[in-house]
Amino acid sequence: MSITFIEDKKAFLLETCHSSYQMQVSETGQLLHLYYGTPTHDLMDYLCVPFDVGFSPNPYEKKLTRGGSSDLLPLEYSGQNTGDFRTASVCSVREDGIWGADFRYEGHEILDGKYSIKGMPSAFDKSGSAESLKILLRDEASGLEAELLYGVFDKEDMITRAVRLRNGSDQKITLEKAGSACLDLPSGDYDLIHFHGRHTLERQAERVPVMTGIETVSSKRGASSHQQNPFVILCGKDAGEEAGECFGMMLVYSGSHRFDIEKEQTGSVRVSAGIHEEHFSWLLRPNEVFETPEVLMTFSDRGLSALSDSYHRFIRSHICKSAYMERKRPVLINSWEACYFDFDSEKILDLARRAAELGIEMLVMDDGWFGKRIDDNAGLGDWYVNEDRLPGGLAPLIGKIRDMGLKFGIWVEPEMVNEDSDLYRAHPDWALTVPGRKPSVSRNQLVLDMSRPEVVDYLYHTLHSLLADHDIAYVKWDMNRHLTDFYSRGLPPERQGEVPHRFMLGLYDLLERLTEDFPDVLFEGCSGGGGRFDAAMLRYFPQIWCSDDTDAFERLSIQEGTSYGYPISSVSAHVSAVPNHQTGRITPFGTRGLTAMQGSFGYELDLKTLTEEEKSEVRKQIADYHALYDLIQKGSYYRLTDQMGRGDHKAWEFVSRDRSQVMVSLVVTAARPCLGPIRIRLRGLLPEADYELVSRETFGCGNPLPDQRKRFTGAALMKGGYVLPEMFGSFPSCRILFKKV
Ligand code: DGJ
Fold first, then answer.
1. Is the domain of 488 the same as that of 366?
2. What is the pLDDT of residues 590-622, one digit of tens each?
3. How remote is the CA of residue 212 from the centroid of ligand 1, in Å?
């Protein structure tokens, strides 16, 4: 039993292998959060001691007592306008002007299996081992009900949360904020780790102290965004990769989001997560229900590696529904950095021919194959082939590529439209634009109004035909601008605040239908690189193009930041040309391969420019990738260096789940004389076992490395470490394989 209700204490215990989550109904009927942390096998109700602070008001029932203010109690889901001045979970206004909510417990239900939410990705439980808890809270004055949903996955150490808000009154209620979860942590010194960035520099891990006041991690861009990922970690000051307490909260949502981390007057910390309220309102008629996106919460008292591993395993087995989570993914060549918009069928076939010779398994034809798309000013929306470029259409091209032994993949960007397109000319009202205002343009494109079912249906039928009529094994689903000009011609004035979230529901509906219809197609997500790298997208896309920055050096921090929350198998990474197209940097071919092998592997460069030596490197990289595939995709991943390290190298490690196979990769990021050898302490080995060095390969290293000892105990490699002699060159790298003997 992962969920227990202790009747006489009115307490709920949610237990996973390494965590305990506890709540209690107070004598006033408020739902208190008691504890989230290491299992104690004890009810932690004694922690919640009432205390008094001036100007923090009490619930009416407590008017004669000091202490017990809603402003100071750890609340499981906070209302508004009732004396809790911290961040509210929900903001609501009823037709008669009653606003806010004072939530009190009404009842609960414990169920086998995982609850589900409609129309949005959420965790599923194929094995039937999860349990669910539903706790009903109600605000008497307005009739607003909040059904708090908890899914407990004990072996995976994951607790999912979402909320069903129901209008239980006979008047309309408008939600102005609908939070997914609130977590009140006791007073203490915490750090916040979050993942910020920009286009071509996504998910840079930043660790900052939680200050008094509110720190916000958010996106108002209608997308989970390059700028701030919907994932935060709160941790103790002493928490590192291997030890210390940390709490993760990850939204399963791809639209505008907001996390508020609030350290209040007495030092306790509230983390609130949900849809960003700035572009949000939702009208609930009597009896109508609004379901929030889900939050994935995990706790680790064994540091950040364990926290990341929980997310990696959970997303792979309980979020992503694609068969490709288990199936082998082909090594691909993508045409974008090889040709950009400048191609025809001859050029694509030439790229395919060269790819086939090297052992590459799939050719992906990127942007530029449809409508009048010869640059980024026209064509989006017209998903029919440009016969000037590809005479006879897609079928003959695909046929020739298949004959070479390659699979064929294609690029689409369905949510967007160019004004210069047949689709826009036929349906100008299908784009998001505000009447009377010129829309903002980005990459000269507008956004389709996915809140309208007819737009979603049109895209569904168009893309369905494309996939049904052609032998397409892979789809790269791109999205190259953020959302503005929210106004839907399909909704009445009082529902215009619903457009951003309805856009997401329309997109999820489209993706759900297409991925169900074509389970054998490998769908890859993309949004100008990793601008929509989130758990909801991972339901449909087992891999996401991690960044438009393909420079191996830059990719180190982008991929490392991504690894805190998202599985390595979801990180799409390619070897590209040098000087790199985004930075002009030159890195060795082997270092580019090593870095791209920290993900789902491929190439993105003009193969005809390769030297014979580089061609043999490609063949070797592909053979290595196949040999190491399971270790990389399914093994445990460890960050061996972080921002706190010596700063002249990055290292990471994969260990097979049975601890028998080990791969350490290291890139020297700064050439500095007289630095001395590099000592890497391995992780995740069996301390008592013996490990043998299988191979130690260097790439781009100007000096030979002297031979070293070949056999070590796991404990020696973890405590003493492995020592690498100095390596000379520009971004040299090294791969070391060990096996348990
Ligand atoms: C942005 C993507 O991230 C690129 O890889 C490429 O597909 C371009 N869009 C094409 O427009």
1. yes
2. 999 999 999 999 999 999 999 999 999 999 999
3. 41
